[in-house]
Amino acid sequence: MTEVVLAIVLGALYALGTFLVLRRDVVRVVWGVTIISQATNVYLVTMGGIHGSIPIVSHGGGGHHAVTDPLVQALVLTAIVIGFGTTALALVLTYRLYQEHGTLDLQELATTEESQ
Amino acid sequence: MQPDSAVLLAVLAIPFVGAALVPLVHRVLGERTAYYAATIAALCSGLLISQYERWGTVTVEWIPALDVSLVLYLDGLAFLIGLLASGIGVLVFIYSGGYMHGEPGQAKYYTTLLVFMGSMLGVALVVDLLSLFVFWELTSVASFLLIGHYQRADRSLYASRKAMFITVSGGLFMLIGFLLLGHISSFVLDGSTFTLIGTEQSLIGIPGEVTHAEAIRHELVERGLFVPVIGLIAIGAATKSAQIPFHIWLPDAMEAPTPVSAFLHSATMVKAGVYLIGRFRPLFVPEHVFAAEVWTWLFVGLGLATMTIAAMLAVSATDIKELLAYSTASHLGLIVAGFGFAETVGAETGAFHILNHAAFKATLFLVAGIIAHEAGTRSIDALGGLRHDMPIVAAITAVASLSMAGIPPFNGFYSKELLFDAAWETAHHFGGLTWLLPVVAVFGSIFTFLYSIRFLWLFFGDRPTELGEIHRPPLAMLLPAGVLAIIVLVLSLGAAPIAHDFVNPIVKSSLIATPEGYHFSVHLPHALKPPVLMSVVTIAGGIAMYPFYDRLHHGIRRLRSIALLSPNQYYDRGITGIAHVSDVVPRYVQTDLMRTYAAVVMSAVSVFALGGYLLGGTGTDLTEAVSGVNLALPITIILAVAVVGALAVDRAPSHIAGVLTLSILGFTVAVFYVLASAPDLALTQLVIETLVLVLFLLVLDRLPAFYGELRRGRAILDGLIASGVGLTVTITVLVTTAADPSDGIAHFFVEKAPVPAEHGTLITDAGGGNNIVNVILVDFRALDTMGEISVVAMAALAILTLIGMRNRGERA
């Protein structure tokens, strides 16, 4: 079943995330990566179907077909946690970068590296 | 009688095993490793000789499931090349024991030489074209390492790179030819094959029993691939056998130690190209020999041009090894031309001259090594009258160089005579311009005569006063040269019986069909036939021109200095051009800017994905898909909020504003999970989102409120890239959600947990829970979850280190 609204929303989220990744400010790049990973999680959940009932045995609705894909949800759950780890690491790297170089401007960092 | 498969496999394996042991042996034996290597070579040639006349095929299953097997084929030609590789190997290893005395890198030297010998035996014995290609390139790699033996010298680096570049890229052309042949074979045989000869389902078939050559040729012509395939294989052979204009690597390759030059660059490796031509001859030449026009003109033209031009270049040489290198190219040209002539006498020329040339040229190289070693110079002008100091070497040289000059009764005379015969026959048949062929053959041979005599003259005439004291050569160096000279003598004096018995099967390997009662024979001429007349002209012309040798020498040198005529110039300029490109390209692709890398990767993904959809189709009708909007209003609203949140992040005026709006996005995604019936995800997302917010705020407290100014042009460009990515994602989501996979792994879990009432056994009983997602995470995919936990732990450790390092300080 095609998900038109989700397709448009995901497209928009990816576009906004990509735009941020292309910025000079390291913090914005981290944001961009975060947005893209959020969008990817939503995409995966969408792939598992969002119209069924929750995949819990005792809470099942009527009918056999009506449950969302539990495997995808398990996968995304892992992804969310790992995404947290990545973001945390990226933030601390950003912090250290600023302490070492006194700037968060990627452009500036590239040019100073070349001149060294 | 069939060859013994174990013996043939041993011949292939022993050199490689021996090579692997060299480092150990070298520790024990030191410089005497030479004799260890010579023993291995002797073992190989002994085993090979034990299989003499047991012509036939050995198939060794390799990966039966994929129909991959190693096909070894032994016939006269394979035996000859294998015997040259192992037999001359024995002599070269012994000689190395004297020549390499006190030289650096001996373990590497002997290892590489043994690997080379094994690869060359592989080239000779293997008839599966893909394995043949592997061994072929292995010989190139070994040659690269040996030419570059003196790693610190710029000239040997240049030379080894040149040889590698030319021979390996030629090999790649050849590989394309092989692949085309394999492809064509599937239309003629049951399934495609890369086996050239020796089995029922091979390209040529079994000589005398099954033949597919005619059908393969027909199929090639039908599909317009006949000329391309011959051309591609010819490029492979020409680069390896140093044919014009690819001959330029051979003179430079003389930077290698002299035993290497004698072994690889005159007797064996450069013979691989002519071997290939001889091997493929029965496939490409039809039974009506004068119909093989493509084959004849290509190889006769290539061979005679190389023979003549390289002989002239040899006359212009100033260094004895340079002279021998050009002379090698010239004689390889003679062999190529021989195989090029489609008549029987053409195959006779090629087969006999491979043997003759290997014998006299290896001898001369060893002599050149002795001269350089004992006299300390390789300059032709600085040498002379060496017979007083080295009488035995002078005798050896006399035998070998008179054979090279083609003077009767030496063996070189016979093969040259056969070439003249072939050229005369062909010209006689076609008439017209083809009368140039015998003329060019004689012209080239006169130069061969000239430089052969010049080389011999190093031992005669006056001894230059500035030439210092010359030592007698050590026995280890003299003996191999002497043995080779005796072989030349044997070949010369016993030419008739040897041709009759030993060379006959070699010739038959490259014959198309053996005529009834055919037997190869040579004899000294007793009537004045055209070829004899041509030999007389050659020798008379050579004697007449010898007094003008110096003038010729300088004249050709002047011609060589014209840049336009020099292939070396084109090679050097090409290499400089390539190096320049590799200099320039990184400046654009490796900018040290993350945005360059991200932009390239993301645009590439979009372009490829969209291009794929355009070319391959999406499999669904998107316009129809778009018409049905079926999402509940709450989800739609919450998703709209998410987009607004993300938009606000993009436009955030400060870091704090950005982080807060990023949280809006995160929390709306949590709400989306609630609405999408994924409660576990919603819970996790809420926790994580809170943590991330706190973390961002903590870090931002220490960071400046920097926000790079947005330039208009850059924003538009980035906007375009971002829109491209967005479009790709939208279409991908539409395509993937339209698909409806009927069964997935997910069904397994759902079926094991029948919803609602039956209460499946697996999830609740074995998994001990009602929540399928939870049971999957901690039971079915528990290892995954453990991996996930370790990732988080790793991240925590990394963060601790990053912060901790700061406090301890780096002493850079």
Describe this structure in words.
The complex is a heterodimer of chains A (116) and B (812). Chain A is mainly α and 116 residues long. Chain A has one domain (2-115): Helix Hairpins (Orthogonal Bundle), CATH 1.10.287.3510. Chain A is built from 4 helices and no strands. In chain A, α2 (26-47) runs antiparallel to α3 (70-101). Chain A is elongated and about 60 Å long. Chain B is mainly α. In chain B, a hairpin with a 4-residue loop joins β1 and β2 (68-74). In chain B, α8 packs parallel to α12 and α25 packs antiparallel against α26. Chain B is elongated. Chain B starts with a helix and ends with a helix. The mean pLDDT of chain B is 88. Classes of the chains: A mainly alpha (116), B mainly alpha (812). Chains A and B meet through α1, α2, α3 and α4 of A and α23, α25, α26, α27 and α28 of B.
Q: Largest inter-chain interface?
A: A-B, 93 and 108 residues
> Tell me, what's the shape of chain B?
elongated
Integer tally of domains of chain B:
3
Question: What is the count of distinct domains of chain A?
Answer: 1
**Number of beta strands of chain A:** 0
Offer a few descriptive terms.
heterodimer; A: 116 residues; mainly alpha; Helix Hairpins; 4 helices; 0% strand; elongated; B: 812 residues; 3 domains; two-stranded antiparallel ribbon; 32 helices; 2 strands
List the helices and strands and how they pair.
The complex is a heterodimer of chains A (116) and B (812).
Chain A: H1 4-21, H2 26-47, H3 70-101, H4 106-115
Helix pairs in contact in A: 1-2, 2-3
Chain B: H1 5-29, H2 33-50, E1 56-63, E2 68-74, H3 76-99, H4 106-125, H5 129-147, H6 154-188, H7 213-222, H8 226-240, H9 249-252, H10 258-267, H11 271-284, H12 293-315, H13 320-340, H14 344-375, H15 391-405, H16 411-430, H17 436-456, H18 475-493, H19 495-509, H20 530-545, H21 549-560, H22 567-589, H23 594-616, H24 622-627, H25 633-651, H26 655-675, H27 679-700, H28 712-738, H29 745-752, H30 761-766, H31 772-780, H32 782-808
Antiparallel strand pairs in B: 1-2
